[in-house]
């Protein structure tokens, strides 16, 4: 391992990130759907620690197996609503740091401004977690 995870070793960092996630959750987004978003982004970023963590949370919450297992291929399966697909597209583009007007406009059809803000915050937070874990070589415990 390179260094201890900064989130765990810098005073106040864990609380700040948890507070950010709580703020996103307070926007009325479905918590299980946010976990699916976190899983999708973690797969994109290759963060094994977060893939393991969010998969376990989704299983514990009894989210349908097909929704969990097919999240990487969300475009090609019938398990997700149009709103969920719009959120996945937004998550992918935010993760790649380019959001087209078409993707934003589609997401805006399904989510209120407050929920869109919550999605953006949740997506930003999981990207941050992924980057800290990947950069420091965190492994699944």
TrEMBL record:
The keyword Oxidoreductase applies. The keyword rRNA-binding does not apply. Residues 11-92 form the Carboxymuconolactone decarboxylase-like domain. GO terms for molecular function: peroxiredoxin activity. Keywords: Oxidoreductase, Peroxidase. It holds the Pfam family CMD. This is Alkylhydroperoxidase AhpD family core domain-containing protein. It comes from Lentzea jiangxiensis.
């Amino acid at each position: 391992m390179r260094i201890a995870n900064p989130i765990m070793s810098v005073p106040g960092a864990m609380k700040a990130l948890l507070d950010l996630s709580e703020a996103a959750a307070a926007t009325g987004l479905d918590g299980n759907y946010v976990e699916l978003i976190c899983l999708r982004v973690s797969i994109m970023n290759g963060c094994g620690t977060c893939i393991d963590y969010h998969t376990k949370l989704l299983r514990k919450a009894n989210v349908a197996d097909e929704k969990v297992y097919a999240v990487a291929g969300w475009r090609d399966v019938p398990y997700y609503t149009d709103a969920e697909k719009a959120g996945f597209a937004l998550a992918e583009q935010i993760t790649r740091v380019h959001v087209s007007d078409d993707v934003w406009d589609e997401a805006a059809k399904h989510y209120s401004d407050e929920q869109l803000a919550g999605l953006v915050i949740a997506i930003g937070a999981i990207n941050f977690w992924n980057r800290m874990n990947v950069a420091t070589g965190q492994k699944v415990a």
